[in-house]
Write a structure and sequence with these properties.
A: about 240 residues; Rossmann fold; six-stranded mixed β-sheet; four-stranded antiparallel β-sheet; 10 helices; 10 strands; about 35% helix; B: about 325 residues; mainly alpha; ABC transporter involved in vitamin B12 uptake, BtuC; about 80% helix
Chain lengths: ~240, ~325
């Protein structure tokens, strides 16, 4: 993939008191691609998303989005630049309808309110929940809530969507539907960075896979290459040396 | 507010405006209290209902607004009554805006119960300062010049003034609710972290809602002080007002525009008209009634009506 990078992570580190959650991580994300970030629990995937979205300040290193440094900016200012996040545990505005949830994304996000109704409708269609628009968010199933998260995020007219385990807890049919939505999002010109544990989904949808382990980047490549990488296999299954010891 | 809502509001306002012509003075005073309470409830709901920052200390703004207006109006005793009232309103609103802006940053970092209790503290601190700083005349009390024209009974004059003020507050709250700012406040109420993640400038919006709510509450405090004619700290920094502002929304429908209006009307009618003759026993009866109402309709009167309508629509479909 030769597209210009939309996101550049430069020597990023994060320390929580005695815990080094992220150590000198560097990579780039090409525009209009789907890049998956995988790794065992505690690898630093969610910390990375929290750093990119400004929820946490980095201890060291830089984050460039579309060439501009964004590390340390407030979360809402980063959203205004064009980065949106769909949460792992869906956080809908429960007292509002699906339409109102998505409309709030369209009212804010990148560059303020423009064509709010059209943007809301487009996001609902893209996330395949247009038929649920009038329903209260509190009445949705887990799978539908994941679609709502994606719809609300892309309604902000984001250029980069950070999707945190959108397939977790979904059945195969729902997972396939979510993968289709992510592909549609990419086809609409949005770059997707996916954190996901469901390996078949990762292999199916990703243009590229990054692997984190204990806060370090241990692999970066095409899905089939990463799946064969010894360091990745060791990180997931444990190394024979470590087991012998 | 849809078109039929607007027509309903205007129709009710026209009907209410004719109240003093048809009602005996006692009921005009009850109406005055209803309108004042409804206006206060709507001013409170801009912060407590829309943004979800339920304040237990809004009486601070009633007191600060009233005393600021009284202290300035005394300095300009020769002004015509209308101008004196206008000056009082502007001063009360401005001082409340300054107070709210000064405390907004630290206090709006608190959420939920912590914010509610901190606001109660603000109310008590303001009352104590007002009471103990001689220049503020809280313990001595302040007289307000009469502003009602000689040809109009004071209770009728203030009834109409509260009606006008209530409609103005309702209009402001409605405009906010319909705007991008209002949508941002709702998202803050629902989930502040997610709202920020979507690009809502949560800190700025909360501060703005707090200041607007404080200004409107302070201005209503100025009218209240004028309607009393003489105030001390105890008459404006009232804990029952702090509590009632929450109860209005609970009764009518938390977070809704008309909830506090319905809640204020209900509570004042129950306490002043139905239970008013029970003397001290009325507090017990009011408390009991509130518990029953909140248990029976946790979403308030509007929530109850909406639920009933939804059930009525669903039954034939099944």
């Amino acid at each position: 993939m030769s597209a210009a990078p939309i996101l550049q992570i430069e020597h990023l580190s994060k320390q929580f008191r005695g815990l080094q959650a992220m150590s000198d991580v560097s990579f780039t994300i090409p525009a209009v691609s789907i890049t998956s970030i995988i790794g065992p629990n505690g690898a630093g995937k969610s910390t990375l998303f929290n750093l990119i979205t400004g929820y946490l300040p980095p201890t060291a290193g830089g984050i460039r989005f579309q060439g501009q440094l964004i590390g340390g900016l407030p979360t809402n200012r980063i959203a205004e630049r064009g980065i949106a996040r769909a949460f792992q545990i869906a956080r809908p505005f429960r007292d509002l309808s699906v339409f109102e949830n998505v409309r709030i994304g369209a009212l804010f996000g990148k560059a303020g309110p423009r064509d709010v109704s059209a943007t809301t409708d487009r996001a609902l269609r893209l996330a395949a929940i247009a038929h649920l628009a009038a329903r209260p968010a509190s009445a949705l199933t887990v799978g539908q809530l994941r679609h709502l998260e994606v719809a609300r995020a892309i309604a902000t007219r984001a250029d980069l969507l950070l999707a945190d385990e959108p397939c977790a807890g979904l059945n195969p049919t729902e997972t396939a539907a979510m993968i289709e939505v992510l592909r549609e999002v990419r086809a609409s010109g949005v770059t997707v960075v996916l954190v996901e544990h469901d390996m078949p989904s990762v292999m199916e949808v990703s243009d590229r896979v990054l692997v984190l382990d204990a806060g370090r980047l241990i692999a970066d490549g095409l899905p089939q290459d990463v799946a064969q990488d010894e360091k990745v296999i060791a990180a997931y299954l444990g190394s024979p040396e470590a087991d012998d010891a | 507010m849809r078109r039929h809502h607007l027509l309903l509001v205007l129709g009710c306002a026209a009907l209410l405006a004719a109240g003093p012509l048809a009602l005996p003075p006692f009921y005009v005073r009850v109406g005055q209290m209803m309108l004042y309470s409804a206006a206060l409830g709507v001013a409170w709901t801009i912060l407590g209902g829309f943004a979800g920052y339920a304040s237990f200390g809004h009486a601070a703004f009633i007191g600060v607004g009233a005393f600021a207006a009284g202290l300035i109006e005394v300095q300009f005793a020769t002004l015509p009554p209308f101008l004196a009232l206008l000056m009082g309103l502007l001063t009360g609103g401005a001082v409340c805006a300054i107070l709210a802006a000064a405390i907004a940053y630290p206090i709006l970092r608190l959420r939920g119960t912590f914010f509610a209790i901190a606001m109660l503290g603000v109310s008590h601190v303001c009352a104590e300062l007002n009471n103990n700083v001689d220049a503020l005349q809280g313990s001595l009390g302040l007289n307000f010049p009469p502003v009602a024209p000689d040809s109009v009974a004071p209770e009728a004059f203030f009834y109409e003034l509260y009606l006008f003020a209530g409609l103005a507050v309702l209009l402001i709250a409605w405009r906010i609710r319909q705007s991008r700012f209002g949508a941002g406040l709702l998202s803050i109420r629902e989930d502040e972290d997610t709202a920020r993640m979507l690009g809502v400038p949560t800190e700025r919006y909360k501060r703005a809602a707090f200041i607007i709510s404080a200004i409107l509450t302070g201005m209503l405090g100025v009218i209240y002080a004028h309607s009393l004619g003489y105030i001390t700290t105890d008459s404006v920094y009232r804990d029952d007002t702090n509590l009632n502002l929450v109860v209005f929304s609970l009764l009518g429908g938390m977070g809704t525009l008309f909830g506090p209006v319905i809640g204020a009307g209900l509570l004042v009618f129950i306490t002043q008209v139905i239970l008013g003759r029970l003397l001290d026993f009325h507090l017990f009866a009011t408390g009991l009634l509130l518990v029953i109402l909140v248990l029976a309709a946790p979403g308030g009167a509007l929530g109850f009506i909406r639920g009933w309508r939804r059930r009525r629509v669903q039954v034939p479909a099944e």
